[in-house]
Structures are given as C-alpha cells and as structure tokens.
Amino acid sequence: MLGAPGAWTLLPSAPQIPSCWGHPQPGHPFPKIPSCRRAPEPGHPLPNPPTLESLRAWTPLPQNLCVLETPRTQAPRPQSPPQGGPPELGHPLPTAAAAAASPDGAVANLTVAVVLPERNVSYAWAWPRVEPALSLALEALQRGEPPLLPRPFSVRVEFMSSELGGACSEYVAPLKAVDLKLYHDPDVLFGPGCVYPAASVGRFASHWRLPLITAGAVAVGFSEKREHYRTTVRTGPSAPKLGAFVSHLHAHFNWSSRAALLYVDRKTDDRPYYFTIEGVFQELQDGSNLTVRHHIYSPDEGGADTAIHFIKASGRVVYLCGPPEMLRRIMQLAQRENLTNGDYVFFYVDVFGESLRGDSARDAFKPWQQGPGQDSGLREAFQTVLVITYYEPQNPEYQHFQTQLILRAKQKFGVQLNYSLMNLVAGCFYDGVLLYAMVLNETLREGGSKKNGAPPLDNPPCVFDVDDPSCDKTPLSTLAIVALGTGLTFVMFGISSFLIFRKLMLEKELASMLWRIRWDELHFGSAERYHKGAGSRLTLSLLGDEGGSLRLCGHGGWYPGERGRVRGCPASRRCPFPPPQMRDIQFNHLTRFIGACIDPPNICIVTEYCPRGSLQDILENESINLDWMFRYSLINDIVKGMAFLHNSIIGHHGSLKSSNCVVDSRFVLKITDYGLASFRSPCDGEDTHALYAKKLWTAPELLQKGRLPPQGMQKADVYSFGIIVQEIALRNGPFYIEGMDLSPKEIVQKVRNSQKPFFRPSIDIGVHSEELAVLMERCWAQEPAERPDFGQIKIFIRRFNKEGSTSILDNLLSRMEQYANNLEKLVEERTQAYLEEKRKAENLLYQILPHSVAEQLKRGETVRAEAFDSVTIYFSDIVGFTALSAESTPMQVGSPVCAGVVGLKMPRYCLFGDTVNTASRMESNGQALKIHVSSTTKEVLDEFGCFELELRGDVEMKGKGKMRTYWLLGERKDPKVV
Predict the structure, then answer these.
(1) Domain extent for 832
(2) Which contiguous run of DSSP H or E holds residue 537?
(3) In the predicted structure, residue 70 carries a pLDDT above the cut 70
C-alpha cells in the first residue's frame, strides 16, 4: 500500500512558522498537537487491518481519523517493469500467481469496469490521472508484489467516460454504468469520483450486489451502508474523516462552545466546497454538541461584508472553504475589522493545497499573494490562518509511484501532471485495486466465488439425497413414449398444413395482384387536368429492365383517386417482402403502401404522399419557427414510427434520414421508403456529392461494407435517428460540426475509418437540454450493442418531455395554432417589405418628376401640357471642358457613379419652345466666368433696380440673327434699395 488514505495535516500559512508543522511560535494560538497514530500490526501492510467479514460485506475500511501525520506503511518495492513494457489496459493481463497454483491450468477472467471523466484533468480522479495508477497496480499483481491472487487471472479493464461538456454528468455516469453491466458484466466497478454521479452509480451497484470502489465521493451520505450504498467502498479521504479530524482539534483545545463555517456553494457544478465542509458541520453539531452556524459566501458586491458580520456574530473559531480569492478577500476585511489580533483563528480547508502555490504541501507557500511577487499587504493577517490539506506520504515508495504516474500520463495521454496532492487520489485508486485483490484472495481461499463471495453448497440437490422423489429419473414407459410420438406427429402435421395453406393463400393473392397499378393510370404534369384536387402529386424514379436508372428522380406526377408518391424499383417476386404484405402495414406514423407498377420498362412503387414536404425541407426553411414542443413532437413521431416498424414483419428501415421523414397536411410526421430493400435503387451515381450527402446518416458498420446491403440492422437505424435528432436540435443541416467546413465525402470517410476519438457531430447544450445530448451520444455510439432500442428511447424521451403527455388533438391544435402564428408573422414581414419598396419607388419618382406630375401619374391620369407666359431659363457650361477631356486619361476624367434603370423606359419631363432655343444659343455664345442675359431678362432685372448690367452689344445668334445682349455683373449693395 502507498499509504493510509484519509490522513490530514495542518499547515500554518505564515512564513515565520517553520515548515515542520506542529511546533508553536511566540504568540501563536496553537501549541503542539500530539500524534494519535497507531502502529501497524507486525507483518501486515495496513494499520489496524480490516477483518475478512467487514471487507466481504463491503463496509468502509476503518481509518485513523485523528492523525496529524499518517503512518508510514510498507509499500511494494519498486522494480523495473517486465520486458516488453507495461501491458495496455483493455487487454487480458496475466497475474503473478504461478500456473502451478491451478492444477488444471485454467485461467479465470476478471473484468474491471471504470467510469470516470475522460479529458478534464482538473478532476483529481480524471482518467489520464487514474489509468497509470491502475496500470501500476495491475503490474504489481502480475509480479506478485504483494502475492494477493492465488491462481492465474486474466484481467480486463473496460472504461467509459462520465463526462459531458467537459464536466461530470449525473445523467451520463449511470447510463455508462448500465451499459458496462449489460455488455461486459464486470466483477468490480471503479469510480465515479464526483458526488452526484457516484450517488446514482452507487445505488445501481448496491442493487446489482457489485462492489464499487472509488477514491472520490467525499459526501457524508455515502457512509449510509444499510440500503443505498451497501457495496460502495471509499479508499480516499472523505468528509466524515475531515469532520473527525476537526472534532479532535476542538477536543484537544477545549473548544466546546461555538464554531462558524463559511463556504462557497455553486449548485451549477458538483458542489465540491459544500460536500467538503459538510462533514465538519455534521461532526461538530451532532458528534461534539457545539453550536455551529454556517453561511454561504457570495462573490457579489457586499458578499464579503456580510460574511464578516456573520463571523463576528457566530464564533471565534472559523472554518473557510472556497477558492483562494475568497480567503484573501475575507482576510483583507478581517484585518480591517481588527479580527486578526489573536482573538480569532481561521482554518482554511484546502484539501489539495491550491492556495500554497507549490507542487505539494511541503513546499513554500504564500497564500496572501495574488500572484508571483504581488504582495497584497495581508502577510500579518495570515498569521492567524491555518491550512488543512491532505497529508502527503513522505516515503520513497510513494515518491517513486508519483514519478511513474507523471511519466505515464505524459507518454500515453500527452498530459503534463505536476507533483501535487491531486496525485494522492490516484494513489488511493492504486490501493483500491490491491484491497480488492486482498478480499478476492481470502474469499477464494475459503472456497468462495468472485461473485457475491458465496461458498459452494455443502449439499447440492440430487447429489446425496438420491431418495428425494423430485430426483427420480426413471425412464418413460413404452405407452408414454408411443403417446408422445403420436402427439408430436400430429403437431408436425398441423404445422406443415398451416404453412402449405399460408403459402397457397399468398400465391393466390399475388396472382390476383390487388396491389398492381397500370402505367397509364399514373399521370405526370399539372393536376388540374386530372380531377382538380382529387389527385395527388407524385415523385418518380424509373428503372429499365436491367435495373439501370433512367435519371427521372424527382419528376412530378398524379395518381387519380389516391394520394401517392411514386419511386422506381426493379419489381421481383423474389423480394423478401412482396407488395401484399406491404399493404397490410397500417400505422399513423408510416406512409401507406398503395401499390406497384410492373409494366416494363416502367417499374415503380406507389406510396402515400404528404404535401407538407420532408422533415429536411422544414428544418432548412428558416421562415418556419419550430419551438421545442414542436420539435419534440417530431422526434416522438419518428420514435413511434420506428418502434412499430422494428416490431413489424419488416424489422428495420435501412435508410433512415430526414428526407425520408415526411409531414402530412395535419403536421403528423410519417416515415417513408421503408421495406422492399431489394426493390429500391438510388438515382445517384458512384462517388458523387449527392451520394455522399445521403450517407451522412449511415452507421459506421454499414459504411465499412462499402455499400448499403439490402437488409439493414435495427441498431443502424438508431444511429441514423441520433443524427436526425441533432439535425432537429441545431437546425444546421445533417452532421453539423462547429468550426469545421468538411464536404460530405470527407465526413463519410472519417466516420468509416472509426479512429478514436470517434468522429461525431457537435453538441451544444446551450441550445438544447443536457438530456437530449445524452440521448444523441448514446444513439450514435460506435458499438451497435451500446445503442438503445426505440422502446428504451421512447421511455427516455417521455421522462424529460412533459409536453408529450398531451392528447393527439391538443397537440394537433397547438401545431395548427403555431403554424397560423407563423403565417401571420410572415405576412406582416412581407407587408412591411412591400411598403418599404413602395416608399423607395415614390421617392425615386419625385426626384425625376415634379410632385404634381408624379401624383397625376400615380392616379392614372393624363398629364396635360402647360403654357407659361414669362419664364427665365438658365444654361450653364464649363468652358474648355471638351479640350480638357481630350488631353486627359480616362482615370483623370472619370469618377465613380451610381446608375439605375427605372421601369422599361426612362421617364423624362421635357421643356420645349422658342424660349428654350434662345437660351441655348446664348449659352453657346457666352464667355467664361460671365453671365450672359437677353434684353428681355435685362428689362425684368431693371424693375428691381439693384442689379448692375453692362451692354455687350449685338451678337449674331444662329437662327435668330443679331440680338442685343448684356453681361450681368452683380448686385448693388445700396441700403436704400429694398
């Protein structure tokens, strides 16, 4: 053994106190506390070893609860690993006992199941931390150090992760434990370490009478052995042991009155601080009869002030349990309130020594610092703080174990572990393996079994009591034999007659061809030509005589009198499920088989048509809002349909996908394209994008065969269902993977390769519930045997989907109401878009035409021409612009513009008449930077009396002759002129 689990040590936090704990300093409130350790018995590796009866009943091992240092127990001598390197977990591992111990050379199998977090190494019981410890323990058993197993054993370790979203999950852990029990039937179970998962698994283990060994599960409730946790054994430190340690402190210092507990309790995680301090509270209140008050520390503003008021009113002995930030904040306020003068003592429960800023509890510690070299001024305040941590064994055997643990974690998992107190938990798992081997050794030595520890019966039935009438094996009489033979003959004759009659009836029904549909009864094109709405739209895939596709997949058509969907198929009487049997399948969540056309080369099958389209179409339509009630209804419909299909004569689907789930006019989801696997043929060629896109729902065991077989498997349907559930939950398409842009072909190849970690879609607990994530992970498990059937899925969904208990009518009405609300919202959005476009068009029209003219055009009126008696027309021109443009490059002349076309023709508002022509001629005869006006305009300006004009003279105007014109020089600023 590496060391006695459950030992605690008390460390002063101030640097003036030497690292050798227990020696007082001047002014320090604590004298030296004597050790109460007990010496181990001679020749036994454990102090006060448990009896065989207590171990066989799987009661907790008695531990030294009041020690301040742990006994140095004898550990196995470290040796070099055997040739060939350490054995891999998950493969048979021979043990140390010689083959001669078993005369017949038989090897018994021992299965060890492990349920722990797989990746998050912030847990002390994470798999990368514990797996090396289990390997070292099994290698020690293999070498026979200590010699615990009396005969050869083949040990197999089966591991499953209890992790979901990077944290311990109380939903995943029991499911994994059930899977391990169902598919591997283990002899012993290790883990979980988190409290809530361990509670669920512990109840299962008690029901199965299966020993559960863990170095975690610190809560007080696991001490209850009579009912829920009869088979649970904790080899590591626990909250009751911490409580006993604190109780001993109070008894030694004669603190018999009051105590205050201040702790952090986050109910969103596994509540580690709450369950750690729980043992202290229970032991002090119930065992020591103290007045114990407790308070939950809040990190919000004002939470620390409230905590200080609580400490003042509760007691002078204070226990703190929380992150280091809480300790620094409390001590900062305690120093401000003068609580650090020696009248108060603060115990900080830090089991892994995180506040000591060192690799282990014996290293240098500066818990008052916020960072390296960042002294917060609390050095004096921390003189009254003592830190309670796990005690780290100092023997060389444990140090060698810790070195090997870190080395193997780096080699196998790529995880860099530190020399820390967290490694003590892995050592407790190491001890757990040896303890189990010890109990198994003594049980087998007394003639017991590894199951239940029961010895063989001393008086088996029908062995010694041969006179018992129930053991009479007298041969049957001749008459009885004749009667039995005659009866069997009649039974065989009856069965044969029934089979022959059934075959004849099937042949007769096949001959009558009630299911047959002639090709000329199927119509393709507009439905208005065929009974208006009486017909139904069809989809067609045609195949020739040799099964070659005619590439008509997706053609629309109509079948008079029946709502049907047509799909091509090579019809054959050798099909395992002929059409007469298909017609007998009637269920609300399966599309109805109508018939088949076998007129070569037009061979197809006709099934019920659902006008709402496929589930894939609905999920990809962003205008349809699906709340979770609606989504769970769709999932329930799939589960009901597949459960019925798996229990029918068909037995499986084989090609379940969201495009094969259709929705009828009443929003009821139905499964289509089931059965008649040999009749169906895909319309997509080999190695095409569409072909791989249809394989995104296919299970890996079917992908590895290269092509889908005619007959699928039920577990493959469960895998496809898991992909559909992820598609419904996230609405990002099938097999959505966050942060990765892979083609369907790349995804299918990764799934087919089946390399660990197995390639699966993304899960987002922020979008859907944790229970739904668990369901998806179980459905797309790599091993088909680990996937639940649809009966189990139906029960699982019913547990967390409370809305699923409503009646079909209520559910339907709710669906119709939601659909109507969606339509109203859609109409409102389209109306707003129309009004916005109308406003833009009117603004453009007002920019092109005068407002009065635009209003007449909007009203559909004719715009009449107008005559104006007196107007002034202004023309402006840039002199020399043409010459400047000719001498410049296009980039020097041009600039960005915005262009658009309004209507089919460009609208314009034209001015015409002699006045316009005159103004144009004057503009062409003008000069740069001068305003050229006519004599008529000069007369108008003279009426104002404030403009300065200069006579230019008579100018020859084209088409006008000579005209007298003037230059407009400016405006006179005469204050007398109004």
Answers:
(1) 815-858
(2) strand 537-540
(3) no
CA distance 112 to 180: 10
CA–CA separation, 571 and 510 (whole Å): 13
| Among 275, 288, 411, 438, residue whose Cα is nearest residue 349 | 275
Q: Do 386 and 402 sit in the same domain of this protein?
A: no
94: left (phi over 0), alpha (psi -120 to 50) or beta: beta
Distance of CA 387 to the CA centre of its chain: 39
Token pair of 327 as six digits: 């300790």
User: In terms of residues, how long is the chain?
Assistant: 978
- Maximum alpha-carbon separation in the chain: 156
CA angle in degrees (0–180, nearest 5) for 803-809-810? 40
Q: Are residues 322 and 221 in the same domain?
A: no
Residues 592, 648 within the same domain: no
Number of folded domains that form the chain:
6
Q: Does a structural domain hold residue 581?
A: yes
Q: In this structure, what token pair is assigned to residue 503?
A: 């075959």
Nearest to 248 by CA among 60, 61, 35, 63: 35
Q: Of 123, 136, 100, which is closest to residue 1 (Cα–Cα)?
A: 136
Return the pLDDT at 431: 93
Q: Are residues 821 and 767 part of one domain?
A: no
* Cα 541 from Cα 604, distance rounded (Å): 7
CA dihedral sign, ordered 232, 235, 237, 243: positive
Chain-centroid distance, C-alpha 655 = 25
DSSP annotation of 119 reads: S
Q: Which of 564, 589, 609 is the last residue of a domain?
A: 609
Residue 267 has pLDDT above 90, yes or no: no
Task: Please give, one letter per residue, the 3-state secondary structure of 265-297.
Answer: CCCCCCCHHHHHHHHHHHHHHHHCCCEEEEEEC
pLDDT digits (tens, 9 = 90+) for 602-642: 777 788 888 888 999 999 998 888 888 888 889 999 999 99
142-182 pLDDT, tens digit per residue, is 887 777 775 567 889 999 999 988 899 999 999 999 999 99
* Cα three-residue angle 648-583-643, rounded to 5 degrees: 25
pLDDT digits 0-9 by tens, 893-940: 433 443 333 343 445 556 656 777 777 777 778 888 888 888 888 888
- What CATH number should be reported for the domain holding residue 599? 3.30.200
CA distance 581 to 30: 87
Element (DSSP H or E) covering residue 335: helix 324-336
pTM, to two decimals: 0.50
